[in-house]
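Explain this one:

_____
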Amino acid sequence: MALVIDATAGGTSSNSYCTLAEAETYFEGRLYTTNWDADTDPDKNKALVWATRLLDQLMEWDGSYMTSTQALRWPRGGVTTPDGVWLNSDVIPDFLQQATAEFAACLLDENRTSDPDTLGFQEMAISSLELKIDKSDRKSVIPTVVWNIIKFYGVKLSNKGKTLVRC
C-alpha cells in the first residue's frame, strides 16, 4: 500500500509538514535538484514523512502546541520570526515546509541517521599507516542547509542534552 501524505495543519493523522506538490514547487526555484527530480514519487513521499519525523524528534520548537490532539508538533502558537513578526498559529509556516523539502532531498541522497563507519574507534593503524579519527567531525543528522532554515525557531536536541542555537 502506498504511503499517503497528510499535511493538514493541526490534523490528528498528519504525517508531514509538506506535501509532494509543495516540495516540487519549492524545488522548481532551486538549483541542483537532479537527484530529487530523478527519484520516484513514493520515495519522495517517504522522505518527506521521515524528514518531518526527524525534525520533530531532534528539535525542541519554540512556542506551544495549538491543540492536544494534533499529530505533529506544528502548528504552534507564540512563535515569532527573527524580525519579531508573529507566525500564524493555524498553518504550517513556509520555513518549515522548505526545511522539510530540503531535509527530504538530503535523506534521498544518504541515510543521515546511520552510525559512522568509524564509530568506537579513536585511531587505526596498519603497519606504518596510521589514521586518527576526529570524533567531533561527524555529520549532523540535520543537514546544514536545513539547520540554517530552522535555527531561529527552536533548540536542537543532541544525545547529550540541548544545544542552544541562538547567536
Notes: Residues 160-167 have pLDDT under 50 and may be disordered.
